[in-house]
């Protein structure tokens, strides 16, 4: 299962298994807003080369690499303004991810723990959830790259 899908599944199920988006460089607000759904889903569904017992530092590095790819691709033009804002907030919230942050996410046992690990307000968390729901729905059957 890809890191991104594990993270999205965790948000939906309130059981965090992993995380995936992060950013280097300009951030999510600079991501294109006219990606094809196919290209977006390839980036969203990307698989991880890490094994289950990878260090938190390796997981953080992997998240940053995957984020760079999804930011380069951007979001499809059919994404709502709220979902796009959620994408930007989510990526920017974890753009400086480090090993300690990984442990916060993997230790989250509830939706409140997940929201706190992101450092998100209630309004921002609603937008993040909207993005994760959009991506999980749009990419449910798309193959991983």
What's the quick description here?
57% of the residues lie in helices and 0% in strands. With 145 residues, it is mostly helical.
Detailed description of the structure:
The protein contains seven helices and no strands. It has one domain (3-21, 30-138). By secondary structure, it is mainly α.
Key terms:
mainly alpha, 145 residues, 57% helix, disordered N terminus
Specify the structural class.
Answer: mainly alpha
Low-confidence stretches: 1-25
Number of strands: 0
Estimate nothing, just give the exact number of structural domains: 1
Radius of gyration: 14 Å
State the separation between the terminal residues, measured CA to CA. Answer: 12 Å
- Biggest sheet descriptor: none
- State the oligomer: single chain
The number of helical elements comes to 7
Note the overall shape.
Answer: globular
Into which percentage range does the β-strand content fall? Answer: under 5%
Helical content (DSSP H or I, runs of 4+): 55-70%
Mean pLDDT: 78
Order of helices and strands: HHHHHHH
């Amino acid at each position: 299962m890809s890191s991104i899908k594990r993270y999205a599944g965790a948000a939906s199920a309130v059981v965090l298994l992993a995380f995936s988006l992060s950013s280097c460089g300009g951030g999510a607000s600079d991501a294109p807003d006219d990606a094809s759904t196919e290209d977006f889903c390839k980036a969203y569904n990307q698989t991880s080369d890490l094994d289950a017992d990878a260090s938190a530092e390796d997981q953080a590095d992997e998240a940053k690499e995957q984020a760079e790819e999804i930011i380069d691709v951007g979001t499809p033009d059919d994404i709502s303004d709220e979902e796009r804002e959620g994408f930007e907030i989510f990526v920017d919230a974890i753009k400086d991810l480090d090993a300690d942050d990984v442990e916060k996410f993997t230790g989250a046992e509830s939706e409140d723990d997940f929201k706190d690990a992101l450092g998100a307000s209630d309004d921002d968390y609603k937008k993040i959830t909207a993005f994760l729901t959009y991506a999980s729905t749009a990419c449910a059957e798309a193959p991983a790259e």
